[in-house]
Design goal:
With 79 residues, this protein is an all-alpha fold. The N and C termini lie far apart (44 Å).
Length: 79
């Protein structure tokens, strides 16, 4: 694992610390989760841009529909 030094405005650092405490995790764990989610989001965005450029809009829409259904199930929402 790599150790990083990050400079943040005091207000941002305080908010992150409070969020980590509220979630019952360390600040390091919270930052790992948030950065992992951000990277995953960027990768998904890039994949959809590639699908759009390849004129695979129906495929992209099918994937989005499936993800919506999975989100609905996870949230306890039924059709």
């Amino acid at each position: 694992m790599t150790a990083l030094t990050v400079q943040l405005p005091d207000e941002v650092a305080n908010r992150l610390s409070a969020l980590a405490e509220a979630k019952g995790v360390t600040l390091s764990e919270l930052l790992e989760r948030l950065t992992t989610e951000a990277l995953a989001s960027l990768e998904v965005e890039a994949a959809f841009k590639r699908l759009a450029q390849a004129d695979c809009v129906p495929t992209a829409l099918t994937i989005l529909d499936r993800l919506d259904r999975e989100d609905d199930r996870a949230a306890g929402i039924s059709d």
